[in-house]
Amino acid sequence: MKRILVVGGGSIGERHARCFLNTGQAEVSLCETRQDVRERLAENYKLSNVFSAFDAALEAEFDGAVICTPAHLHILMATQLAKRGVGLLIEKPLSTSPHGVDQLAELIESQNLPVSIAYVMRQHPALHAIKVAIDSGRFGRPVQMVYSGGQHFPFYRPAYRETYYTRHETGGGAIQDALTHMVNAAEWLVGPVTRLVADAEHCVLEGVDVEDTVHLITRHRSVPGSFSLNQHQPANESTLTILCERGSVRYEGHHASWSSCVEPDSDWQIEEQFSLERDDLLVLQARAFLSQLDGHSEAACSLAEGLQTLRVNLAALESVDTESWKHL
Ligand SMILES: NC(=O)c1ccc[n+]([C@@H]2O[C@H](COP(=O)([O-])OP(=O)(O)OC[C@H]3O[C@@H](n4cnc5c(N)ncnc54)[C@H](O)[C@@H]3O)[C@@H](O)[C@H]2O)c1
After folding, report:
1. How far is the CA of 306 from the centre of ligand 1 (A)?
2. How far, in Å, is the centroid of ligand 1 from the Cα of 32?
3. How far is the CA of 68 from the centre of ligand 1 (A)?
4. Residues with CB under 6 A from ligand 1
5. 93 CA to middle of ligand 1, Å?
6. What is the full per-residue pLDDT of the chain (328 aa) written as tens digits?
7. Integer Cα distance of 164 and 177 in angstroms
8. Which residue ranges form the domains of the chain, and what is each CATH number?
9. Ligand 1: which atom is nearest the Cα of residue 53?
10. How many CA atoms lie within 13 A of 299 on its CB side?
11. Which of 46, 103, 255, 301 is most buried (CB neighbours < 10 A)?
12. Going by CA atoms, what residue is nearest to atom 24 of ligand 1?
């Protein structure tokens, strides 16, 4: 059994606590500043220990910590935990600025600490299969990437007005909150973004003024890409298409499937369709992190990859503000 500390018991922290417990390989403790949240989680889950302050949690012994506080707190908390030799699973986005990331990277390297960024799409079996197919050369070299997706954020997160989502400084808005998942997935599949231009607008979501609609044009070295995402459409859809020299592959999140199309004028052929329950990806992520703590596997998403996607988030925000291309 590994001793896991969940820091921040909000929406995703509660899910991490539940999913780590579901692995049957972890004892879970919680650090949460809000009394009502602490009490509710302590009532609903078999928690080993509950802390009301981060400093108190730092005094206890843990094998790993899952940092689930708003993004502007991630690096500060990760650094303090790393100083005590605790392995880290850090929620996305890595942060809201690159400040302190180099120091954290040095600490991690000097202690050979297991660290992963919780970009949960890395656990999706359909994206995994696409990664294997692309890397095997089955469809030839990727030459273009197109993403389109959206969902009704208030339906899934009714309390969004009372969370980090309301401000860029705390990790809010569609670019840092939602688009970052698919940017990270695309970077994993076709390579890092090297330049971009973005347009974004607050179109619909009530009670906030951050962007809920984004268009992003990217270059992943030689591969041109584009992303279009909103957080207000009724349909929950997510489609990532990678066009390669000898055919195209497509991920459809709403069908948990991937397909290919190689003959001109032919239909998409479903390669695989998966049956996923709501917590499945998080349980897979918990298992992957526990395996990393044991030294049996590499980070699902490394600190360096998390930092690269953080740079994309910040460049996209700056591009919107300045109405200009940004080079990374
Ligand atoms: N991977 C995903 O699919 C996913 C989904 C949702 C959120 N997230 C990310 O996870 C992070 C948290 O998101 P959320 O939706 O759970 O937010 P949330 O607001 O629901 O929860 C954050 C919690 O952290 C607590 N907190 C704040 N400061 C603290 C401190 N100093 N010590 C202890 N607890 C503290 C708050 O009281 C709150 O309960 C964000 O970075 C967000 O982008 C990831």
Report:
1. 17
2. 10
3. 4
4. 7-13, 31-34, 37, 54, 68-71, 73, 91-92, 118, 120, 163-164, 171, 177
5. 11
6. 999 999 999 999 999 999 999 999 999 999 999 999 999 999 999 999 999 999 999 999 999 999 999 999 999 999 999 999 999 999 999 999 999 999 999 999 999 999 999 999 999 999 999 999 999 999 999 999 999 999 999 999 999 999 999 999 999 999 999 999 999 999 999 999 999 999 999 999 999 999 999 999 999 999 999 999 999 999 999 999 999 999 999 999 999 999 999 999 999 999 999 999 999 999 999 999 999 999 999 999 999 999 999 999 999 999 999 999 999 9
7. 9
8. 2-120+284-300 (3.40.50.720), 124-276+309-327 (3.30.360.10)
9. 32
10. 20
11. 301
12. 8
Q: Which amino acid is it at 16?
A: H
CA 136 – ligand 1 centroid, Å: 37
